[in-house]
Amino acid sequence: MTPQTTRFAFRLKYVTKNAFDRRALSAGVVLLPKGRMPRGGWPVISWAHGVVGLADQCAPSRVGAAAYPGFELYLANWMR
User: Fold this and answer.
1) Does a structural domain hold residue 18?
2) Structure confidence by residue, pLDDT tens digits, 67-80
3) Number of domains in the chain
4) Alpha-carbon distance 70 to 61, whole Å?
5) Which helix (H) or strand (E) holds 1?
6) E strands along 1-80, which residues?
7) pLDDT: is 38 or 58 the higher one?
8) Does 28 reside within a domain?
9) 49-55 CB contacts, 8 Å cutoff, 24+ apart
């Protein structure tokens, strides 16, 4: 589901390394704001969700960012 403050949301998967230096599949979300892209493109913000848990079932890319109380406020600020 695309949060109200965004125009598009894309889930992506990538390969990284785990705590044991082994290959691991990971996922993330790219959110694009509503409105016209500014000259030079959109700024990029990277948010690590470690404060809400590190297990797979905690990942916003899996459960949706709306599952975290208050996240919509952060997101609305970032999208501005």
Assistant:
1) yes
2) 667 777 777 788 88
3) 1
4) 16
5) none
6) 6-17, 23-33
7) 38
8) yes
9) none
